[in-house]
Amino acid sequence: MSKYSKACQGFVVRYLDRPWTAADGLPEKDIKKAEARLRLTLPSALRSFYLSVGAVADLCSIHNVIFPPKDLVFEDGHLMFMDENQSVVSWGLKDLKKADPEAWQRNNSYEKWYSEQKTFIELLTSMFDWYKELGVWRFKKQDG
Asked: Is the pTM of this model over 0.85?
């Protein structure tokens, strides 16, 4: 198991307070279809995310929306992987040859890109930490 798979599977335990299961991941055929359509191999960290937890709505779309592989697109030289919940900003990856590339944020009003100064996995970890601090998942559990 790669360090990225381990980190992604750990998101389920750390943030959702339950064990990881194989059903949390997407089938590899979904990733391969996206790779064929985009004519590239996804970076290891992004690939591991989808294979490990890509089917977990509470991680992929509880606030910001992490695109499923079928919705990945290139814009402005970035592989777009996530939108803020109101589409004010979007996130993309530029250097796809790196296993865990630096994440970039685009302000959609000005269409200007800024480095997050974090890798893909570091960005998700900080975002999920923020969700946890806000009590996002706790409130969801109370709602039922």
From this structure: yes
